[in-house]
Every structure is written in C-alpha cells, then in structure tokens.
Amino acid sequence: xxxxxxxxxxxxxxxxxxxxxxxxxxxxxxxxxxxxxxxxxxxxxxxxxxxxxxxxxxxxxxxxxxxxxxxxxxxxxxxxxxxxxxxxxxxxxxxxxxxxxxxxxxxxxxxxxxxxxxxxxxxxxxxxxxxxxxxxxxxxxxxxxxxxxxxxxxxxxxxxxxxxxxxxxxxxxxxxxxxxxxxxxxxxxxxxxxxxxxxxxxxxxxxxxxxxxxxxxxx
Length: 219
Hints:
Layout: H1 5-23, H2 25-32, H3 37-63, H4 68-96, H5 106-121, H6 124-148, H7 153-163, H8 165-181, H9 187-213
Helix pairs in contact: 1-9, 3-4, 3-5, 3-6, 3-9, 4-7, 5-6, 5-9, 6-7, 6-8, 6-9
C-alpha cells in the first residue's frame, strides 16, 4: 500500500497494524472457510452495535466540517452505514442463528467510546483521522480477500460488500478529503490527529481479535 500526501504518512504509521490484521486467524479463516461460525456470529452481532455508534460519530464529525461539501459527505456516509452495512447484518444474522440483541462486548464499547469522545471533543481533523481506519482498512481488506475468495457463502457475502466498487469509491472520497486537511494542520494538531489514526487502526485489529476469542465481560 503506497500513497502520497498526508494519507500516505498516516498509513505508514499503521502499516504494521494492517499487516497483523491480514495475518490474523479471523481473516485467514474467512478465506479458507475454517473460521468457526460462532466467531463470525460474534463479529456480526458486535459490528451491528459498532455501526450504530460509528454512524453517530460520522454525524458529529460532519457537523464540524468547514465546508458544505464535507458536511454533506459525512451525512451521506452516516445514512449509508445504516442502510447498507446494517442491511448486510440483517441478512447474515438469521443465517447464523443469532440476533443483534446481545450485550455490547468490552472491545466494542471501548472502540466506540473512543470514536465518540474524539468526534465530540476533538477538532474536525482529529475526528476524520479517528474514523478513517474503519473506512480504509475495510477497503484494503476487502480488496485483498476478494482475490482469494471464500468457500463459505456467508463469508464471501461479507467480503464482497467491502470489495464492491461503490464502497471503494466512498473510501476514495474520504481519502481525498483527508489529504486536503493534512497540509493545513500545525505540527501539534497533525501529531494529535495522527495519534488518533494509529489508535483506531489498533482498535480494528482488536475488534477482529475480540470476535476470534468470543470476548465477553469477565464479571
């Protein structure tokens, strides 16, 4: 993965995290079909919880955009998250024999709390940097996994969603905006935003790992 501009610098910050994500047994299990359906069910249920708060975070981030185009873009994406990705979950959950009415797991709570706190308390740039890994890492993972495919139709359906041209175009839109933001930041502001990007990229790894472990509250 090579990019110029500020997004290239951000990706360099999280390159090791992304490499670890691709090597995680949750994702390798999607490709070869060996992933325990219970782990995938855990992931889908937790992702439904996550996406509800992710859409809220996008709304807050968009409200801080300095341009009408930025406000409109994040509003569209927040609505799309609910309509497209949650629709995917609604089709997958019955096939997995579960509902989304399960407790929010610790990593899900921690990740969404971080996103919402950064969106509300940080600058526009900080909010964009915090939400960007969810967009971008899923696009990169989808592009890699679709080349390999999965023998399990449920896993393939998930892969296809993030490899889809429409989703890739959404991510390209956010990346272009992010590259416009970078040169406008002071060194201190840039460092804070970069720190949020690195943190939420790690949360992406943790989210898949939590599903792999079927994480629940210890007490």
